[in-house]
Amino acid sequence: MKGHGLLTRRHLLAGVGAGIGCGLLPAQAAPGQTRFAPLAEEEALIAFGHVGPITDGGWTTAHELGIQKMKRVFPKLRTIYVETVPYSADATRIFRQFVAEGAQMVIATSNYGDFIKDVADRAPDVAFLECDGTRVTDNLGWYYITHWYASYIIGVAAGLMTKTNRLGYVGTFPVPSVIASANATLLGAQSVNPACTMNVISINSWFDPQAATQAASALADSGCDFLCGITDDPAYLRVAQARGLKAAMWNLDMRRFGPDSYVSSVVLDFSHFYIEQVRARLTGQWKAAGTFLTLGHGVDRDVWGATVPPEIAARADAVRDRILAGETPFRGPIRDASGRIRVAAGEIMDDQAIYQWDWAVQGMTGLV
């Protein structure tokens, strides 16, 4: 099958069918020593399972852009993909069909837990990668971006730009990736404006523009003058533009949807990671591991919006410089929403701890 072929979920279930650099921080070594045979580029098939449509303009589009850059490096490589893979037994059938189609590497661009692990366990000769995963086996690894640093930097700008000291966050699900994003943004804001609070409204979807619009409108009505979130569409930026508010986005540059309101975005670039992983698989050197894509190397803040005052951009970027130099802003004391100290003075939350964050920080409402 030539090119970046789409296998629809209907076909798969029927059993039919055929920048930012990348600094990698190994987070967990593979427990086994599995080796995969080298592959000729023209004989390789890489399969991708996406959580949303590749045209969503957000998370899945960011992965698709990375894949397209990877394919320019390996022009003879064959790829297939399925969009909007559900979090259900259907996912298992889709990943199993990838294996049946002859894929030597299967990459899930979201967390599918046991749905992908069960397939990987039964296909030891296939390399599997799971974005936002948690487990490493002989042939299953995970990768994720340390987006909390970019969120913190943007939060600094939010804390300096808000007039009401009320930030609004359009959330999706109360999972660690969302919790870390919201917490980091609020902590960044509080570092320069301790009076800042954040109200979260979760819409129980990664891509639901109507629900995101309703949530953003409710947050604006409650007095929030700076909106942020983690959705895959620009809906709440449109609300901010219409109501004269400021907003920070996720995944890609979305300023065209609200040029007067756009502050920045947590921008993603998976291309270098995909290039490295595919090259390792082709040469027979791939090994399962857990990998973080770090600030400036796979994830970063976007170019500041046109209406961000230069002095505010400079203060936020000074924080970015310190983080890049090795300083972490996630140092105690850090209290939870009830006021209880969760990170003691002098203690540091490392990336693994932030990756598993399951409690809201002080000043947060509506998150967990």
Fill in the keyword field for this structure.
TAT_signal; Rossmann fold; 11 helices; PnrA-like; 368 residues; alpha/beta; signal; ABC-Purine-Binding; globular; 2 domains; seven-stranded mixed β-sheet; BMP family ABC transporter substrate-binding protein
Summarize the structure.
Residues 46-290 form the ABC transporter substrate-binding protein PnrA-like domain. Helices cover 35% and strands 21% of the residues. It is α/β, with parallel strands linked by helices and 368 residues long.
What's the arrangement of strands in the largest beta sheet?
1-4-3-5-6-7-13-2
End-to-end distance, in Å? 45 Å
Judging from the principal axes of the Cα atoms, what is the shape?
globular
Succession of helices and strands: EHEEHEHEHEEHEHEHEHEEHEEHEEHE
- Strand-residue fraction? 15-25%
CATH superfamily of the largest domain: Response regulator
CATH-defined topology of the largest domain: Rossmann fold
Number of distinct beta strands: 17
The secondary-structure class comes to alpha/beta
- Percent of residues in helical segments? 25-40%
